[in-house]
Amino acid sequence: DRKVEFIVEKDSPYYYDESASKVDHTKASVIANLLKRKNRDYQFSLKSMRSGRLDTDKLAEARQGVQTIYERMGEVKTNKLSVTVLVDESGSMAGSKADKAREAAIFLKETLEGVPDVELFIYGHSADMPRHGGSGTTQIFVYKEPGTFTPPKSMGNINGRCENRDGVAILAAAKRVRQKTQNHDVFVVISDGSPSTNNHGG
């Protein structure tokens, strides 16, 4: 069954702040600076060319008949980047695994949120939850997504929930990201193992 339900979670400040307090900001700043350099557009100029725009610093040479008195201006635009994080929130993740997954996802959010030209998508997933579509439905929780209002500390809700139909969740999240951006994407899955739900495992 490939029925998928996307759910925007509510804020959960207590658990968010608890996990965020464990973020290593030194490591976060290193990663952020690397991505800033990768995604920086810049302009350049080539001097002493035979054609292009007259270089006003070479007017004397122009008077003397020198031919290499022009400059050419250019711009390099880098490929923008999107980062997608998908967290397994199945029942087997409950407890310390969910705590570590929440900390890892919040680390990536705190690290990448302020980096220019990096789009950030963060989702969690479970399946067959009785209050959300029931048997046969994959639930995807939207924690961070460009163009969608998400409460800033909703990731405090990352926890072990019900089943996990991983293949369906990965495909659905990837399709949703692709609908929202054409940028190159790094897709990170945080999980403790194999799919486990009705007629879907191994």
Summarize the structure in short:
The chain has helices at residues 13-20, 25-38, 59-63, 96-112, 166-180; strands at residues 3-8, 42-49, 53-54, 70-76, 81-88, 118-127, 137-144, 184-190, 196-197, 200-201. By secondary structure, it is of the alpha/beta class. Strands 1-7-6-5-8 form a 5-stranded mixed sheet, with helices on both faces. It has a 3-stranded antiparallel sheet with strand order 2-4-3, with no helix packed on it.
- Rg (C-alpha, Å): 24 Å
Structural class: alpha/beta
- Approximate helicity band: 25-40%
Describe the strand arrangement of the main beta sheet, using strand numbers.
1-7-6-5-8
Oligomeric state of shown chains: single chain
Task: Identify the notable features of this structure and list them briefly.
5 helices, alpha/beta, five-stranded mixed β-sheet, 202 residues
Give a written overview of the molecule.
Helix 4 links the parallel strand 5 and strand 6. The chain is built from 5 helices and 10 strands, in the order βααββαββαββαβββ. The protein is 29% helix and 30% strand. The strands form 3 sheets. A 5-stranded mixed beta sheet has the order 1-7-6-5-8, sandwiched between helices. It has a 3-stranded antiparallel beta sheet with strand order 2-4-3, with no helix packed on it. It has 202 residues and is α/β, with parallel strands linked by helices. The protein is elongated and about 85 Å long. The two termini are 16 Å apart. Helix 2 (25-38) crosses helix 4 (96-112). The mean pLDDT is 87.
